[in-house]
Write a structure and sequence with these properties.
CATH class of the largest domain in chain B: Alpha Beta
CATH class of chain A: Mainly Alpha
Oligomer: heterodimer
CATH architecture of chain A: Orthogonal Bundle
Largest sheet of chain A: 2 strands, antiparallel
Strand order of the largest sheet of chain A: 1-2
CATH topology of the largest domain in chain B: Rossmann fold
Shape of chain A: globular
Largest interface: A-B, 22 and 28 residues
CATH topology of chain A: ABC transporter involved in vitamin B12 uptake, BtuC
Number of domains of chain B: 3
Helix content of chain B: 25-40%
Distance between the termini of chain B: 45 Å
Largest sheet of chain B: 6 strands, mixed
Number of helices of chain A: 13
CATH superfamily of the largest domain in chain B: P-loop containing nucleotide triphosphate hydrolases
Chain lengths: ~300, ~500
């Protein structure tokens, strides 16, 4: 029994990274988009579209990395479409986001029908656990390069938002469109760029789902990661590095159910699996108060205006 | 950088139309090098339009702009900046969530792709040493007082090496001391031949004290121009409004009673980010009395008014109305007739897309005759009541069935005042009632407020305009940092003492 609990812990650790990685990419994408003053609820659709694109390209080309790139590009296109639509007068980004979510998933299912059966080449993983002879630990430390890339993206994004002209412009557009226009900044273009880049990251997050874990393409692939990213970003106070920790937290919560199941604890399986959603609800309730607004929230976001 | 004196700015025959409306008609104006020039005029006189033409926001339909007798075309604020013309707007354009340093850096015309914060900070510190005033570079702009923000705005323009500075009502959010300090600095810089200054203002006192030249606009036309030293204040005011100004003292009855109507005890309130901004307010207002709350904006007045209006919950303290504990439920509001005219009434107490008649009936739509039997709305009755109020309060245009957001600011203000005064109001809470109104609308609204007082209403008047408070109120209290720190009878109040309390320099 002792070893069993250790097994759970190790499995949760491995699952944290495995399940947290798509959260990381999607939340970084959403973070960047929101920093520029828009909310992209369509990232759920972007994620699914990215998963399908990545899987299809990997299957046809034989190169999973090309699949990842194309997934990013597909996400980028959806992001650009979203923000282009939003740049018209009086178009609400929440409504467009919901439409884009349905559009993205619908398009992915439509185009992805032929890819449900065949098996595409998988993204390779890096064996960080080679030194150990405990099989569970070995399995847990099989880490995908995308996770490491995600960490780098989080660090670089945080640094760029603070220390580059580009980052400053994005933040000004997100804080005050009027101020940005007074400075002669093209607010709509900045937002289109940021949303497209955010879509790129979300698309990559999608390709991780289909090309690494759970490694298949089906219509039930995504389980709301794209939508939960919005809550994650709020929880992370719009800071990329915090997005990393929050994604891992969510990944850990999601890994709990499967890990317990693997040692034979099946009671309350569905409750354990629901933990990420419960956490999302809890975050929304805790952070929303009628008496105060959030610190750090970009002022141009429609939900806060 | 242009090392000589700032250029001579001249406009010739500027005309600007917006559809059928002619906002500016054939305006000639000249800002001489190194002068402090005031642009005077009532609201809607075209001052802002003229300045926006100079800044390149608007493109004049006719006329030319020249610098040092060279005709120039200014298509955008960027162009204006290239010519060394900068503007400080009435609303701050700073970003509250960023530091002073970040705000100053972002406004630079050219940013390096990677920002070397150390170098920028060093350069700006050096730059600020040459300036007459200083602001902490690492402070978050949102945490600065209005006067400090204004300084940052000015520093921003000067850091951009602009030689002509245009300021749109720069002192409207400042205390008298802050205003004098700021204008004094600008004046010194014009005397030092570093800068030409053009300020848009209503305040004749500031013109008389600081400006060299003055130009007056009225209804989009040039009325007159001259040296301030050769003009009297009454002459300037006359040019502004078109006839002799007779500053009438408001007709007021002697106060008869000493019955307390509204009693606030130890009211504490938190703002949107959880900071306690009202920190123990005690105040009693009697029947037939106007109590003016003076103070620089951001010292808790806004939140205090929201509590009294029922838009925010106090964290501690009690409100008593007519000796009974009061919570702003609809039932108690109606029983005690405690009504409210908050600032920006269109956003705060109107539904912009609903009609004037509907908005006018917000206090009584659910009672006879508007609601037959208490539930069925009667449009004819609504319109009848609305027409009565529209006529009595001179709301224009006089149509009850148009959306209230299509009315001008002054008329929205009149409409809300009509609604709040219509039901024999007992207690009236008012915040900045004349913000952005023209002279006539302002007078009318002030007369209505005093008339309500004379009928016995207890009035709490919160205003950023000290003149307004002294003109209307019986008693003045000063709010600073969430507390009422000073109280005086309004007639004969000492402006200097009030100003010191407003800035917290009263020791």
């Amino acid at each position: 029994m002792e070893a069993g609990w250790w097994g759970v812990l190790i499995a949760v650790l491995g699952g944290t990274i495995r399940i947290g990685t798509p959260f990381l990419f999607v939340s970084l994408g959403e973070c960047l988009t929101e920093k520029s003053g828009r909310i992209n609820l369509g990232l759920e659709g972007t994620l699914v579209m990215g998963a399908m694109t990545g899987y299809a390209v990997s299957l046809h080309s034989g190169s999973p990395w090309l699949g990842v790139l194309c997934a990013g590009l597909a996400g980028m296109m959806l992001g650009a479409l979203h923000s282009w639509l939003c740049s018209f007068q009086r178009v609400n980004d929440i409504a467009v986001g919901i439409a884009m979510m349905l559009f993205g998933t619908g398009l992915a299912f439509f185009l992805g029908k032929p890819y449900i059966q065949p098996s595409a080449p998988r993204l390779p993983s890096i064996d960080l656990g080679a030194w150990s002879d405990i099989p569970q630990l070995k399995a847990a430390l099989q880490i995908n390069a995308l996770f490491l890339i995600g960490i780098v993206v989080a660090i670089v994004l945080g640094w760029m938002l603070k220390n580059t002209a580009w980052g400053l412009k994005v933040r000004v557009a997100g804080e005050s469109a009027d101020a940005a226009r007074a400075l002669g900044l093209p607010v709509d273009r900045i937002r289109i760029m940021s949303t497209a880049q955010g879509g790129f990251l979300a698309g990559i997050g999608g390709s991780y789902l289909s090309l690494y874990y759970p490694f298949n393409w089906s219509e039930g692939l995504s389980s709301g990661q794209g939508l939960m990213a919005v809550a994650l970003v709020i929880f992370a106070r719009w800071q990329p590095m915090a997005c990393l920790w929050v994604s891992l937290l969510w990944g850990g919560a999601a890994a709990l159910g499967p890990s317990l199941q693997s040692v034979g604890i099946t009671g309350g399986y569905y409750i354990f699996n629901a933990i990420p959603y419960i956490m999302t609800l809890a975050v929304m309730i805790i952070t929303c108060s009628p008496r105060r607004t959030l610190v750090g929230v970009p002022h141009e976001l429609t939900v806060t205006r | 950088m242009n090392d000589g004196a700032p250029p001579d700015l001249q406009t010739l025959g500027i005309t600007k139309r917006f559809g059928p409306l002619t906002a500016l008609k054939d305006v000639n104006f000249r800002l001489r090098s190194c002068r402090f020039h005031a642009l005077l005029g009532e609201n809607g006189a075209g001052k802002s339009t003229l300045v926006k033409c100079i800044m390149g926001y608007y493109h004049p339909d006719e006329g030319t702009i020249s610098l040092d007798q060279q005709q120039v075309t200014i298509r955008s604020p960027r162009d204006a900046q290239a010519f060394g013309i900068g503007m400080v707007y009435q609303q701050f354009t700073l970003i509250p969530n960023m530091t002073v340093l970040e705000n100053l850096v972002i406004s630079k015309a050219k940013l390096t792709p990677i920002i070397n914060w150390q170098k920028e900070e060093h350069q700006l510190t050096q730059f600020m040493e040459k300036m007459p005033f200083k602001v902490p570079l690492t402070a978050r702009v949102g945490s600065l007082a209005a006067g400090e923000k204004q300084k940052v705005e000015i520093l921003k323009q000067l850091a951009l090496q602009n030689r002509i500075l245009i300021l749109d009502e720069p002192t409207s959010v400042l205390t008298p001391q802050e205003a004098d300090e700021m204008l004094g600095h600008l004046r010194a810089m014009t005397l030092g031949r570093q800068l030409s200054v053009l300020i848009i203002t209503h305040k004749l006192r500031e013109v008389a004290a600081f400006a060299d030249d003055v130009t007056v606009l009225r209804k989009g036309r040039f009325v007159g121009s001259g040296k301030v030293s050769e003009l009297k204040i009454t002459q300037m005011a006359e040019m502004m409004v078109g006839s002799e100004v007779t500053a009438k003292p408001k007709q007021r009855n002697e106060r008869l009673s000493k019955v307390p109507k509204l009693v606030l005890q130890n009211i504490r309130v938190k703002n949107d980010i959880g900071v306690e901004v009202v920190r123990g307010v005690h105040l009693t207002i009697h029947e037939g009395e106007i109590v003016g709350v003076a103070g620089v904006s951001g010292n808790g007045q806004h939140e205090l008014v929201e509590v009294l209006a029922g838009q925010r919950q106090a964290t501690a303290g009690t409100i008593h109305v007519h000796d009974q504990p009061y919570q702003p439920t609809r039932e108690k509001i109606m029983r005690h007739k405690i009504f409210c005219l908050p600032e920006e009434p269109l956003q705060n107490t109107c539904v912009g897309r609903m009609t004037v008649a509907e908005n006018l009936a917000f206090r009584n739509f659910d009672v006879e005759p508007h609601a037959v039997g208490g539930w069925l709305m009667s449009r004819p009755a609504l319109c009848r009541s609305a027409r009565g109020l529209i006529e009595r309060y001179n709301i224009k245009p006089p149509y009850p069935e148009i959306p209230i957001q299509s009315l001008s600011g002054g008329n929205v203000q009149r409409a809300v005042l009509a609604r709040e005064l219509s039901a024999d109001v007992e207690i009236l809470i008012i915040a900045n009632p004349c913000f952005g109104l023209d002279f006539l609308a302002m007078e009318e609204i002030r007369l209505q407020i005093v008339a309500a007082r004379n009928r016995g209403t207890a009035v709490l008047l919160v205003s950023e305009d000290l003149d307004e408070i002294l003109e209307l109120s019986d008693r003045t209290v000063v709010m600073f940092n969430g507390r009422l720190v000073y109280e005086t009878a309004s007639p004969g109040a000492d402006l200097a003492v009030i100003g010191r309390h407003m800035t917290g320099h009263a020791t």
